Amino acid sequence: MQFHRILLKLSGESLMGEQRYGIDEKRLAEYAQQIKEIHDFGVQIGIVIGGGNIFRGLTGAGKGFDRVKGDQMGMLATVINSLALSSALTAVGVPTRVLTAIRMEPIGEFYTKWKAIDALERGEVAIFSAGTGNPYFTTDTGSSLRAIEIEADVMFKGTRVDGVYTADPEKDPTATKFTDISYKEVLSRGLKVMDLSAICMCQDNNLPIYVFNMDVVGNLRKVIDGEPIGTLVHN
Hints:
alpha/beta; Carbamate kinase
């Protein structure tokens, strides 16, 4: 086993599955089963999930919402997704703990590093919601922050694309995939792996990111087993 403790970053948009909005129960159940599979191997798992399937603060700001209120709405969207994932994991026998960056007991416990590590060491999946608790920061930055705080070995960024490409493969058919790439090259090429704050945090703290397609059932296990199905971003 290569990894003892991981941070899994999930896309809120991916939770929509075939729908145009909200949570697809089939996709949610698939995620829960994939997470259970690696949990059963003893991997300690922290999770950050976006909220774009419900509300995205930056998009809202473009439509006239106050940016701070829009970001707060986005944070609440991540809490809804976190509760849904917690429920799905509990249903398949995986213990979870939802931790929130903003106080909202009894919905979740207020986050501290030590509560998170205690949960992980007890065998619970720790789900970190409400981003960093601050506006102007994305869940990408929130996941970088949490991964560094809990001293994760790696951040797995589960997306609908199977790695990092020279350009957006959904728009450019000539785009080619990297098997691994340095943070320096990601920044110099302006590649959209994660937002700039998140990339710089990972670079400064020597935290590798592995980008892969989470929407293909079984891929999370393959990543844990070391199969080269995505892209490793590192110093």
